[in-house]
């Protein structure tokens, strides 16, 4: 059987790379991700400064590169699982706001309801709505 989703086995017997119902991580106190059987660690790089994570978005470019966009505290980051690289994208956002995200033809659109709407094309993080924040 290939890696990924597997609902036919006891979750305690899954090998690394497999997940039952794709719930293979848990958030422990003080806000640290813990792995369960089925999770393959891709990096040891830290994301942010230990603030509240308010978005993990599975973004895919038109070229097929999987990237996770992460919002934490007042910052946003990208994480590319294939390389293990974490890169800062933006900062200075309103702290601890929950973000919403969508992918439109390979361009990620990100909004937290308090700051200007942002986009990401796999390379560049850009503010697209420069006037009053929260008005879309």
Topology of this structure?
Elements: E1 4-5, E2 18-19, E3 25-28, E4 32-35, E5 53-60, E6 66-72, E7 75-80, E8 85-91, E9 100-104, E10 107-111, E11 118-120, E12 125-127
Parallel strand pairs: 1-2
Antiparallel strand pairs: 3-4, 5-6, 6-7, 7-8, 9-10, 10-11, 11-12
Describe the structure.
It is a single chain. The protein has 136 residues and is an all-beta fold. The chain contains no helices and twelve strands. It has strands at residues 4-5, 18-19, 25-28, 32-35, 53-60, 66-72, 75-80, 85-91, 100-104, 107-111, 118-120, 125-127. A four-stranded antiparallel beta sheet has the order 5-6-7-8, with no helix packed on it. Strand 11 and strand 12 (125-127) form a beta hairpin. The radius of gyration is 16 Å and the shape is globular.
User: What is the number of beta strands?
Assistant: 12
Strand content: 35-45%
Helix vs. strand class: mainly beta
**Overall form:** globular
Tally the helices: 0
What's the overall average pLDDT, rounded? 77
Radius of gyration, rounded?
16 Å
In spatial order, strands of the major sheet run 5-6-7-8
| Model regions low in confidence, pLDDT < 50 over at least 5 residues | none
Share in helix: under 10%
Distance between the termini: 46 Å
**Sheet with the most strands, sense and barrel status:** 4 strands, antiparallel
What is the chain-wise order of helices and strands? EEEEEEEEEEEE
Considering the chains and any ligands shown, give keywords for the structure.
136 residues; four-stranded antiparallel sheet; mainly beta; 0% helix
């Amino acid at each position: 059987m290939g890696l990924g989703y597997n609902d036919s086995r006891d979750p305690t017997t899954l090998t690394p790379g497999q997940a039952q119902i794709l719930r293979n991580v848990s958030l422990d106190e003080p806000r640290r991700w813990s792995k369960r059987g089925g999770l393959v660690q891709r990096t040891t790089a830290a994301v942010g400064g230990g603030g509240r994570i308010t978005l993990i978005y599975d973004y895919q470019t038109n070229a097929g590169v999987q990237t996770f966009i992460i919002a934490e505290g007042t910052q946003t980051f990208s994480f590319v699982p294939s390389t293990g690289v974490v890169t800062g994208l933006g900062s200075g956002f309103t702290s601890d706001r929950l973000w919403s995200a969508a992918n439109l033809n390979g361009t990620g659109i990100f909004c937290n309801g308090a700051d200007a709407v942002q986009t990401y094309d796999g390379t560049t993080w850009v503010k697209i709505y420069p006037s009053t924040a929260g008005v879309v």
